[in-house]
């Protein structure tokens, strides 16, 4: 066999490696796999419809290169909150479809020996991602679901505004990660009509205060197809490549720290949950832990 390009693998991407390379990598090097997920969604007149997918891929590649985690292929499509449906340029998956997609990807990657999973989302699909994470947990798959901007919680440290859509934050990331697909000459500020005062809703990337609900915990917005003139919520004219680079580095550092802790606490081949329960709900009460854990699910010390 030809010498591997990166020592233990040919690529950070699962799909670029031969099957035996992925199996050996999970067994001998790192069994943490990151699944980037995005969407095909209109991002105003200045950014491509694949912005969320490109953001997820761009961040995940840097994390994998620096942490040693494996990257699972990124599905281009995602699920969408109620107000995205019917918008030209957006191709949404139903929640049930997206939940099943995430479940099947994780189950399949586990066959190659990966035991710890991080979902890195760059799109507002928390509603389906969290359900998938907990359904997978019932089956014994250790999975962490995250959305990069809520994981970062910039809270106006780098950005002037909280993140919304095709705005300062997303456009800055685009200018840093894939500037060839951005046309800043077409960037215009935009916004929708809120149905309730903003004090009740946590903006994406905002630190929560008392009395605030998460921005996906309600039907706060009218359908975008009727309410938005440009498809933009926020002001992309404030975006810069430099802001995108700072956001990227800050966000990546947190993910790397997360991967490093997982790897330090659980050796390759160890499933942190300590069981597999393929029948899901029906047999959750019959779970038996593996030989690496005691009868209460605690990891045995060597």
Structure characterization notes:
- This protein has about 300 residues and is α/β, with parallel strands linked by helices.
- The chain has a single domain, classed as Creatininase (Rossmann fold, 3-Layer(aba) Sandwich).
- Helix content is about 35%, strand content about 10%.
- It is built from eight helices and six strands; from the N terminus they run H-E-H-E-H-E-H-E-H-H-E-E-H-H.
- It has helices at about 20-30, 50-65, 95-110, 125-140, 150, 170-175, 225, 240-265, and strands at about 30-35, 70, 115-120, 140-145, 200, 215.
- The strands form two sheets. A four-stranded parallel β-sheet has the order 2-1-3-4, with helices on both faces. A two-stranded parallel ribbon has the order 5-6.
- Strand 1, helix 2 and strand 2 form a beta-alpha-beta unit.
- Helix 2 (about 50-65) packs across helix 8 (about 240-265) and helix 6 packs across helix 8 (about 240-265).
- The protein is globular, with a radius of gyration of 20 Å.
- About 45% of the residues are buried.
- The model has no long low-confidence stretch (mean pLDDT about 95).
